[in-house]
Design a protein that fits this description.
Blueprint (H helix, E strand, L loop, with lengths): L2 E13 L5 E13 L3 E5 L6 H9 L6 E9 L2 E3 L4 H5 L6 E4 L3 H4 L6 H13 L3 H14 L4 H4 L9 H14 L4 E5 L7 H18 L2 E6 L2 H7 L2 E6 L2 E7 H6 L4 H8 L48 E3 L2 E3 L12
Parallel strand pairs: 3-8, 3-9, 6-7, 7-8
Antiparallel strand pairs: 1-2, 1-4, 4-5, 9-10, 10-12, 11-12
Helix pairs in contact: 4-5, 5-7
The protein binds iron/sulfur cluster (SF4) and magnesium ion.
Subcellular location: Cell membrane
Organism: Staphylothermus marinus (strain ATCC 43588 / DSM 3639 / JCM 9404 / F1)
Main location: membrane
């Protein structure tokens, strides 16, 4: 079992103008296995994109990090830009949230492939074109239709597939996909999820998918980690999270979405997650949680493991729980 990504007590924050650090990721430990699809789920502002960006190596200069992060067993000192240059784009690549913006509007698709292949691998135009054709075919596009086009001449779905092919052009085996389906309609969303699954199987990729949509997560992922206010609050296999979600926040995410073939009343929960810098005492979910107890407002629960299922909630922690 090869570890693709390992984070140990990883903290990531942003420095504000008064030099206060607003922590967006607070002491996360995760292990992502090679060739798995690992999903980070949560509402916006929970720190999932920050974690994804750290893995890709594209944190902004005003970010601050503590703890350890390793990619294929190579120590990534996230503050050390030079060190990361060797990893970024070669071991890890990003499928962007908005391909329309990520693609260069002034270059044809073939020119964009040439740029990647030439800068990373010094390929000439002919070889670059050959590889571009291959990759576009793999993502289900007709190369002849796409190569000479500018991004605006492609549909949203084609842009997304092109962006994926360009991300794969780096040769990286770890792909971080940040809300890859958010710009797509329901039909294209399903097609894209199937494509990611096929790419994982055919190219042996490790995919870290970031999404606010727990249903998309459960469709293709092997394991799901639910994030809330900068922490992982639950992590387990996809099957287990569907059949036996433990954390009240995970249950809330499931309650808020319709599930095909299951008759249920959709519940919407009041309140918003705290923003970095606005963290409260105790469990960060306590203001929204229907199960909150006294201890929840006093002390933040640590994540514990019960038969391979990790959860951070006083309901399951012997120190203060009642279960
Ligand atoms: Fe709810 Fe308490 Fe669990 Fe937090 S620790 S999720 S408030 S029961
Ligand atoms: Mg985000």
């Amino acid at each position: 079992m090869v570890l693709a990504v390992k984070a140990e007590n990883l903290w990531i924050g942003y420095m504000d103008e008064e030099e206060n650090i607003l922590w967006a990721v607070r002491g996360i430990s995760i292990e992502v296995l090679e060739r798995e699809i690992y999903c980070l789920v949560g509402e916006s502002g929970c720190g999932k994109s920050t974690l994804g960006n750290a893995i890709v190596g594209i944190l902004p200069p005003y970010s601050v990090t503590k703890g350890r992060l390793r990619v294929f067993n190579r120590e990534v000192i996230v503050e050390d830009e030079k060190h990361y240059e060797e990893i970024r784009g070669k071991l890890v690549t990003l499928i962007p949230q908005n391909p329309g913006k990520a693609l260069n509007p002034y270059l044809t698709i073939s020119e964009q492939f040439y740029y990647v292949f030439n800068s990373l691998y010094e390929l000439n135009k002919e070889n670059s074109l050959k590889k571009a054709r291959e990759l576009l075919g793999i993502v289900g596009l007709d190369p002849e239709q796409v190569l000479d086009s500018y991004p605006h001449e492609l549909s949203g779905g084609m842009q997304q597939r092109t962006a994926i092919a360009l991300a794969l052009a780096t040769g990286a085996k770890i792909v971080v996909a940040d809300e890859p389906t958010s710009a797509l309609d329901a039909n294209l969303r399903l097609q894209l999820l199937k494509l990611l699954l096929r790419l994982k199987n055919e190219l042996g990729l490790t995919i870290i998918m970031i999404t606010h949509d727990i249903l998309s997560a459960t469709r293709i992922c092997d394991r799901v980690a639910v994030m809330y206010a900068g922490k992982i609050v639950e992590e387990t296999s996809t099957r287990e999270i569907i059949e036996n979600p433990l954390h009240p926040y995970t249950k809330m995410l499931f309650d808020a979405v319709p599930i095909l073939g299951v008759k249920k009343k959709l519940v919407s929960y009041l309140g918003e997650p705290p923003r970095p810098g606005e963290y409260i005492k105790g469990c960060q979910f306590s203001k929204r949680c229907p199960k909150a107890m006294d201890i929840c407002r006093e002390k933040e629960p640590e994540i514990i493991e019960i038969n391979g299922h990790r959860v951070a909630c006083w309901l399951y922690n012997v120190e203060g729980g009642e279960k």
